[in-house]
């Protein structure tokens, strides 16, 4: 299930997680924040992104583009 901006307060494991321990979790507790963390370190740090930046990242990953656009 995709997260909903501003209404997903609980951490949600990525649908691409395969059970091998290499998982990310995301949540969006406010409309201006998408938080991401490593599921193996639930008490560890989390990264926060603007929804536009997170959406651009996800779109690029989904397209198979692994380049950063930088030389």
TrEMBL record:
Pfam families: DUF397. Residues 10-61 form the DUF397 domain. InterPro entries: DUF397. Residues 1-22 are annotated as: Disordered. Residues 1-20 have a biased composition (Polar residues). This is DUF397 domain-containing protein. It comes from Streptomyces qinglanensis.
């Amino acid at each position: 299930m995709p997260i909903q901006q501003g209404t997903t307060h609980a951490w949600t494991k990525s649908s691409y997680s395969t059970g091998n321990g290499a998982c990310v979790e995301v949540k969006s507790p406010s409309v201006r924040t998408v938080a991401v963390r490593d599921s193996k370190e639930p008490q560890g740090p989390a990264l926060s992104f603007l929804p536009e930046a997170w959406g651009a990242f996800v779109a690029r990953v989904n397209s198979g583009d692994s380049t950063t656009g930088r030389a």
